[in-house]
Design goal:
By secondary structure, the protein is an alpha+beta fold. It contains 17 helices and 22 strands.
Length: about 550
Amino acid sequence: MSDQKTFDFIIAGGGSAGCVLANRLSASGKWKVCLIEAGPADSSPFIHMPAGIIPVVRSKILNWNFWTAPQANCGNRQMYWPRGRTLGGSSSINAMCYVRGHAWDYDHWASLGNEGWSYKDVLPYFRRMENFEAIDKVDDGRSYHGSGGPLNVAEPRYLNPLMKAFVAAGREAGHAVTDDFNGAQQEGVGYYHTMQKNGQRCSNARGFLDPVKGRDNLTVITRAHVARVLFEGKRAIGVRYLGGGRIHDVRASQEVILSAGAIGSPQVLLLSGVGPKAELSKHAIPQIHELPGVGENLQDHLDIHITMRERTRHSISLRPLGLLKGAWGVIRYLFGRRGELTSNFAQAGGFICSNAEQTVPDLQWHLVPFVYANHGQTLAPLFRHYAYTLMTCFLRPESRGRLSLRDADPMSAPLIDANYLATERDMQALVEGFHKARELLAQPAIARHAVDELEPGRAVQSDDDIRAYIRAKSETVYHPIGTCKMGRDAMAVVDPRLRVHGLTGLRVVDASIMPTLIGGNTNAPTTMIAERAADLILQDAALARSVPNYEGATAAAVA
């Protein structure tokens, strides 16, 4: 075992939240901060090239490559869950869509007893983290957006003609057109702003971590797998990690912060003895503290797609013309950071209501200019077809899954049961979304690009047929949350200041703390959570220095 090192703050997980915390907690120079990441540095050129998303999602090094348990309501299929395993986490492998969700989502969090998390409370943090390039190009840009922040948010440098056709078709179908999904009106169709800068990905590692890596008080350790939190009684005092073939212990004089994501953070808590005793006893893990909600409340956006064969050949293909276009794209990217390789592919989409009873949008669209095939794991269809795919997901599912341990080995993947489609409402919303997607795809502006419906095909017409298709073909759209939820009820894991209930010196800061899914992509909200958490952590650290017995008061408050 290596010699122990001591820091003020230890951040377990160098992903979307961890990179923000490393920046903000080390900014004053007063605190020694250690960031520990299981994966390698984000040095792959495919991370930084926006169109490199397919190679990084296929990577066995940069991706955790999780699989769910067989899903009873989805044909008993095991479903693939890619998650980033490198500095920047999933912000280094995702599709870069910058979406905050609807204001209602945050007001709902506050209504559940999470003071300080209403939309009014979190908007300043969204603005602080942004350098929004289009601030003067969208309605009320300066009311909703910020400039000068670490996370660069840009307009697309290249728009595939199919994206323009989609937005025009949305207008023909009666949907509003919005220039900013994060502004005054989310509902409608339009183009996604992206987390990019100068034609390259702006991951949270690139935006928040790279500019501050040289700080004397910041230590970044990669290829280091956190095994568990170390405790003295009910206080977290450090972490144990595996790296370089050795076991290492590092100590925290202030706090340990778990930022390992909706999969990693509950797993580390369980491995550390924090969770339901019945689960820990299965694996002979001594219990430190009873918390029944650890690993529960798992939520994710489930997605169903319609793929159209294309006649106009604007789509991405590995057929001869597509390869020729790709070669030209490489040249444009290498010499100017322009062209199709700057694309995040999912350039256009929208937010709509599944039916007239909905007061806020509950369906989201992403259009991609290629055949959807198993998360990019299967490339054969790209050699056969020019095609485009419209993906529809239900934003606020009622289904709740859970995460549990496979065994007590920290190197083992956990058991993930998403429990998709456990309620009739979740299924019905996707059926309604499927019909609305077909309606849009039938509009003249985009229908002129189509030959026919490749998948599921026109034989699938009745609601029963569509339900069967959803069970057979639906997939994650990569937004797991909720497994260490914030709240004050019996199943909450952290309080509204993100301190783990009943323990001191330990917080969770990542997507796992979301009590409910937000209406959109989850990376921007996770970044906001870390921005706000950094303020909370620094406030509490200052109080701990100035108020006698502050630690005891904190313990009583969260017990």
